[in-house]
Write a structure and sequence with these properties.
The protein is 80% helix and 0% strand. With 356 residues, it is mainly α. The chain is globular.
Length: 356
């Protein structure tokens, strides 16, 4: 039986955390990296091997990635779980949180069933490097098509969000005259204090940078709540159809978040809302995929617990940093750069593996 080394675990763990949320397929990278590096990496990290420690490693990576997502969205999940519990208590679905909870549950069922029934067959048959490279290139084409053929409704949703935020910014800029006068008076007092030897900023609230960080996080939370209100204007059927797209991610090379975003945009969601729904959907799916395979951790992971833990920690950190970046990225930017990356890396990997 082969064993993983720390360099293998650390590199693959961090790549997993990053690529699980980026629309470039973590499983595709997990299959391709060992094959492209070659040597002991190809032997130790063979996802298709029946008793490979890599299977146990992937379990740890999935759980850690889900924890990284929970660390970012924990406030949102508290609201969603509370919404689910109150809907059970009241036997009704009225509030935004209640409807979002049931949308996520219903949207997760198709991929959950497909994963339980076909995960092994998909992993063994499609977990080959060349096939993963082919599907990575196809993933790029899906992302490109998602941007190129976006529905009018999705584009209008983007435009409406931009219009609302521009209006809010103009309202904030047009503050009442008394606020501007008050600010000017405060500035004059600060200048006077400096002239008589009082340090500038004395009497101001300590921890200015921390206050700015807290304000920024508050804004993020509020934007998330607004996105949830828009999401819950959609039907449960739309949620199920978007969630069903995740089944394609059982193919190594196809990105879960990428195809879910594309399905969301074809369903009329703005790019920003499609990304948020994809990230929220990913959390229970990834966590369940890890938990259901915990027996593999103890069956195949003997002697590799150190590398598994080290790589999993990096995976969780990478997932947190990724989602924090991508939530902001998709407010103003597109899937096109990721599409180009997938096509280039996919085709390049095919050529390398065929000629090597």
């Amino acid at each position: 039986m082969t064993h993983m080394t720390y360099p293998e675990a650390l590199v693959v763990g961090f790549v997993q955390g990053i690529t699980e949320l980026f629309p470039v397929s973590s499983l595709g990278h997990n299959v391709l990296i060992p094959a492209l590096v070659g040597g002991s990496w190809a032997t130790d990290l063979n996802v298709a091997a029946p008793e490979s420690p890599y299977l146990a490693f992937i379990v740890g990576l999935h759980v850690a990635t889900a924890i990284g997502l929970l660390c970012y969205f924990w406030r949102d999940w508290l609201r969603i779980i509370a919404g689910f519990l109150t809907s059970i208590r009241d036997r009704d679905v009225r509030t935004t949180d209640q409807k979002l909870a049931w949308m996520l549950i219903l949207a997760t069922i198709p991929v959950g069933l497909a994963g339980v029934l076909f995960e092994h067959e998909f992993r063994v048959f499609f977990g080959k490097p060349v096939r993963a490279a082919i599907f990575l290139a196809i993933n790029g084409l899906i992302l490109f098509a998602g941007e190129r053929f976006r529905t009018r409704q999705s584009r209008q949703a983007d435009a409406e969000i931009e219009r609302q935020r521009a209006a809010a910014a103009r309202a904030a800029a047009a503050a009442p005259e008394r606020e501007r006068v008050g600010s000017a008076a405060s500035a004059g007092q600060a200048q006077a204090g400096t002239e008589i030897g009082v340090p500038a900023g004395a009497g101001a609230r300590p921890g200015g940078s921390g206050s700015a960080s807290a304000a920024s996080r508050h804004d993020e939370i509020q934007l998330g709540i607004e996105a949830d209100e828009r999401l819950t204007q959609r039907s449960f059927l739309t949620a199920v159809l978007i969630g069903s797209a995740q089944i394609l991610a059982l193919l190594a090379g196809i990105s879960r978040d990428g195809v879910t975003m594309v399905a969301g945009m074809f369903g009329g969601l703005s790019r920003e809302d499609a990304a948020r729904f994809a990230f929220l959907l990913a959390t229970p799916v990834i966590f369940a995929a890890g938990v259901l395979k915990v027996p593999d951790l103890f069956t195949y992971g003997k002697g590799d617990y150190g590398p598994i833990v080290a790589g999993s920690i990096l995976s969780g950190i990478g997932a947190y940093l990724s989602v924090r970046f991508l939530v902001k990225y998709f407010r103003t930017r597109t899937l096109t750069p990721f599409a180009v990356y997938c096509v280039v890396v996919g085709l390049g990997s095919i050529l390398y593996l065929q000629l090597h």
